[in-house]
Amino acid sequence: MIVIGIDFGLKYWGCALGFQMTEHTEPLGSISAVDGKIDFKVLDQWVKSYGIDAIIIGLPHKQDGSPFEVTPFAQQAYLDLCERYAFPVHQVDEHMTSVEARDELYKAHGMKGLLKENIDVRSAELILERWFILNQ
Q1: Could you tell me which residues are beta bridge partners of residue 25?
Q2: Residue 66: CB partners within 8 Å, gap ≥ 6?
Q3: Nearest to residue 5, comparing CAs of 49, 58, 77?
Q4: Would you give per-residue pLDDT tens digits along the chain (136 residues)?
Q5: Do residues 30 and 117 lie in contact, with contact meaning Cβ atoms separated by under 8 Å?
Q6: Any long-range contacts for 43-47 (C-beta under 8 Å, 24+ apart)?
Q7: Whose CA is closest to 88, among 9, 24, 2?
Q8: What are the DSSP calls for the chain, one per residue?
Q9: What is the Cα 90 distance to its own chain's centre?
Q10: Spatial separation of the C-alpha atoms in residues 68 and 34, rounded to whole Å
C-alpha cells in the first residue's frame, strides 16, 4: 500500500510518501494553505502519479488530549479529504511530531536543517511511521 502522510498546518501542509510493506517514508514537500485550506492541484498530482491507496493526516491534540485552536481546522481538512478521494483517509495523533522532527533535523544538520518546510515534511514522515506501527 502506498500512502501520503500529512502534517496539517494553517499555512502549510507537510507531505510525505509512505510504503506500508517496507515501512519506508520519503519526503514529498509542502503545500501552501490559507486558513488550513489548500489548492488541491499538487496533492491531486501526487495521488495520481504515485497511485496512492490512502492518506494519513495528523490530528493535533495537547498532551492531556484536549484540542488546540487548530484542531477543528484539521478535522475539517480530514473531512474535505474524505469527500474528495475515493480511497480511505485516516487520522493519527500527531502529538509532538514537530518537536521530534526539529530535534532530529537539528542533530543531523544543525541550524541549517531547521527550515519550516523540512520540519513539516519530517513531521509528515513521523505521522506515517506512527500509522505503520498502529497498523502492523
Answers
A1: 18
A2: none
A3: 58
A4: 999 999 999 999 999 999 999 999 999 999 999 999 999 999 999 999 999 999 999 999 888 888 889 999 999 999 999 999 999 999 998 877 777 766 765 677 777 766 777 778 889 999 999 999 998 8
A5: yes
A6: 43/4, 43/13, 43/15, 46/4, 46/15, 46/17, 47/4, 47/85
A7: 2
A8: -EEEEEE--SSEEEEEEEETTTTEEEEEEEEEEETTEE-THHHHHHHHHHT--EEEEEE-B-TTSPBPTTHHHHHHHHHHHHHH-SS-EEEEE-TTHHHHHHHHHHHHHGGGG--HHHHHHHHHHHHHHHHHHHT-
A9: 11
A10: 18
Helix orientation angle between 116-134 and 97-109, rounded to the nearest 10 degrees: 120
CB-facing half-sphere around the CA of 9: CA atoms within 13 A: 19
Q: What is the pTM of this model?
A: 0.90
Whose cell is 497498523? That residue is: 135
